[in-house]
Design goal:
single chain; mainly beta; Chitinase A, domain 3; Thrombin, subunit H; 5-stranded antiparallel sheet; 4-stranded antiparallel sheet; 9 strands
Length: about 150
């Protein structure tokens, strides 16, 4: 069965930077399972699996627009320390921030001084070209998601 939109797919993947450094992999774990076309995975992976069949493997190189998008300056914010919890802030560290509505956001601390802390809310893989090795483990009938 060839993969098309609406199919439920299980696949193993290894994600690498252009340098070859691995940043994520499903090998040794349960395969990633998703319904093609539902936007549960990045656009480039959904498009890459179209037409593939069970047991098929391929290597795909994804530009930022097909992966996690470009890194944007509009997601970098400077916040006065007086508006933040009294704790230490270290440039380069990642932290969880909680909005007033209870939403949890992950941010990297870009800079910090006695008055302000600058946070970068871009996804850590935003702006990067990514290389994925994907292998289709199975193609399931529509509506067969386990999770």
């Amino acid at each position: 069965m060839s993969i098309e939109k609406g199919c439920v797919v299980q696949l193993h993947y290894t994600g690498q930077f252009e340098s070859g450094e691995v940043f994520d992999s499903s090998l040794g774990k349960d395969p990633l399972e998703f319904k093609v076309g539902d936007g549960q995975v990045i656009k480039g992976i959904e498009e890459a699996v179209l037409g593939m069949v069970e047991g098929e493997s391929k290597r795909v190189c994804l530009a930022p627009d097909d992966a996690y998008g470009p890194a944007g300056n509009d997601l970098i914010y400077t916040v006065p320390r007086e508006n933040l919890p009294d704790q230490s802030y270290d440039a380069g560290a990642w932290m969880e921030l909680h909005t007033q509505s209870g939403r949890v956001l992950n941010a990297r601390i870009v800079t910090c001084d006695e008055q302000n802390v600058t946070f970068d809310f871009n996804h850590p893989l935003a702006g990067k070209t990514l290389v994925f090795q994907v292998e289709v483990v199975s193609v399931l009938p529509t509506g067969s998601l386990k999770s």
